[in-house]
Amino acid sequence: MNTELFTQWTQQLTALSAPYQAYQQTLISSTERLLKLQQDTANYYGTLAVEQLHNVSAIKHWDDLATFGEQSAAAGNAVLNRFEADCGQFTELAQECHTAWQALVEQHNPLAK
């Protein structure tokens, strides 16, 4: 009798914790992807900033200033392109998270059964 009671209790706890565990796994996966995107983005912009500092320090003559202007324009275009790509990736991640959480709600909604 005690074994049956513990078996039922274990089954009930497993059923109760399943939605929470699914939510946790989705949250962890989404957070991991978000942090990776943020890390890549910060690394890119940091590297670009350091390159620009090196370019500024290389200015010795007026001709170097013209070269720096060209490099700055290219860097500005690179930033705009990267920013657009980053926004697209963040938006895609947000939509995927929303879809996954919506599926969890529908799957574990006791009123839908």
Low-confidence stretches: none
Question: What structural class is derived from the secondary structure elements?
Answer: mainly alpha
Rg (CA only): 26 Å
Helical content, roughly?
over 70%
Q: What's the story with the biggest beta sheet?
A: none
**How widely separated are the two ends?**
31 Å
Mean pLDDT: 88
Strand content: under 5%
Per the principal axes of the C-alpha atoms, what is the gross shape? rod-shaped
- Write the element-wise H/E pattern from the N-terminal end onward: HH
The number of domains is: 1
The tally of beta strands, per DSSP, is 0
Total number of helices: 2
Organism: Ferrimonas pelagia
Protein name: Phasin protein
Describe this structure in words.
By secondary structure, the protein is mostly helical. The protein is 90% helix and 0% strand. The chain has helices spanning 2-57, 62-107. The longest helix has 56 residues, at 2-57. This is Phasin protein.
Structural descriptors:
single chain, 113 residues, mainly alpha, 2 helices, Phasin protein
Helices and strands, with pairings:
Blueprint: H1 2-57, H2 62-107
Q: How would you summarize this macromolecular structure in one to three sentences?
A:
It comes from Ferrimonas pelagia. 90% of the residues lie in helices and 0% in strands. The protein has 113 residues and is an all-alpha fold.
